[in-house]
Amino acid sequence: MHVLCMYRGRQRPHPPFVQSGPLIMHLVAENLTVQRGGRAVLDGVSLRVAGGEALLLLGANGAGKTTLLRTLAGLIRPLSGRVRIDGAVAEQSVGEQCHFVGHTNAIKPSLTTAENIEFWGAYLGSVEPERAPDAKPDPALDWALERLGLGDLRDVPAGYLSAGQKRRLGLARLLVARRPIWLLDEPTVSLDAASVALFAGIVAEHLAGGGIVVAATHVPLGLTGAHELRLGARTVTV
Amino acid sequence: MRPFVALLVRDLRLAVRDGGALGTALGFNLIVVALLPMGLGPDLGLLSRIAPGVLWIGLLLSALLSLPRLFEADFEDGSLEVLATGPLPLELMVVAKSLVHWITTGLPLVLLVPVVGLLLNLDFAALPILMTTLLLGTPAVSFLGSIGAALTLGSRRGGLLIALLVLPLYVPTLIFGVSTISAVVLATGGVIAPLMVLAAISLVAIVIGPVAAAAALRAQMG
Questions:
Q1: What is the ipTM of this complex?
Q2: Rounded percentage of chain B residues whose pLDDT exceeds 70
Q3: Which of A36, B84, B96, B162 meets the CB 3.0–4.6 Å disulfide criterion with B148?
Q4: Cβ atoms of residues A68 and A231 within 8 Å
Q5: Domain range enclosing B162
Q6: Cβ A123–B6 below 8 Å, yes or no?
Q7: Could you report the per-residue pLDDT of B120-157, keeping only the tens digit for each?
Q8: From the list A10, A11, A100, which residue is nearest B81 (CB)?
Q9: Is A210 within 8 Å of A52 (Cβ atoms)?
Q10: How many separate domains does chain B show?
Q11: Is the separation of the CB atoms in A151 and A195 below 8 Å?
């Protein structure tokens, strides 16, 4: 069965992510080969990350860090090889269990801070399953905004936020929709030192809860004991 | 269902907040239709005869204007990639967006027809059947248009390309829309048959459009 078929997912609310039981989740990629513009950017890359572990992607510009993250998220179909999750909800595709944070923030300037993140929570599957229409505001939403220091800005249109605040708003969707695997592509771009520390804390909590983080970053995220995967060299296995 | 509704509500809200698209489409439609009597001269009989066809063509051209923006904003700010990792199949994502395009562009254009029809000395006996064909036919405009919007995503001059790709697909809708009206006004034949074909074209578009557009979007992102 080919698991990297991200669009076949059934529509069901995501259960809150809790690593339970003796079965430990693993994100596994086998022998990934990806071509971009006629050039093999990834050539036989394999990796295996267990729940609670972080994997740092290293490599010079153009080494294929972004390509690997996008392939893991299912946005790029690899030429050969496959991505799968061991010990996860079988009926969900890999993409549906991943948060993909790319270079862009995926926020709408004309929606307010709260509306932006409320939408992603509802679309990607919020922590809160269903709530009565009058039971506003959503506590998970408020919590996520407070956590990222955006509490005072909840009714400000996102177009008026600074670059760093926009980035934090983009990262807030990690908190309103629980997903076990976080694929982070330079998540700390335009964040100040305090915000980087804040985000490092959020990542550490996710790992402590049994989550998986695969990140391409030049900033130390305080991921002590993280595995490293150096791209650019051929056939690297972790 | 929850993600679908969330996307629908967000896009409707964005359409209201950002404005622009609707005003442009309505204004363009008004100008195209207003130019025609000036070009053809004040022959009321002629204008009245060609009014249904002109109104149909004006509507098709106006609806084209906002098509390039269908996926563009989400493509540029990275939302499309996040939408693709959502629980909703990409096809249903396209359905939601096409539906929003129909609600915010197709529907207002249809509602404007009685007003711009005055400029063409539209026979008001033909108005009910004209409105019916427009309402039945315009979903095809939005859903087939999504294919063009997805194919031209990220390309410069995408707007012109969309017109070339999509306008030929509107030919069946136009033919059966106008022939339904002639059947009523000129009493040349049965009304039900062309009306049913028109509805069938829209239903086919609602099925084929999202599948084709989703395939194009996957290729664009990959």
A1: 0.85
A2: 100
A3: B162
A4: yes
A5: 2-221
A6: yes
A7: 888 888 888 899 999 999 999 999 999 999 999 878 77
A8: A100
A9: yes
A10: 1
A11: no
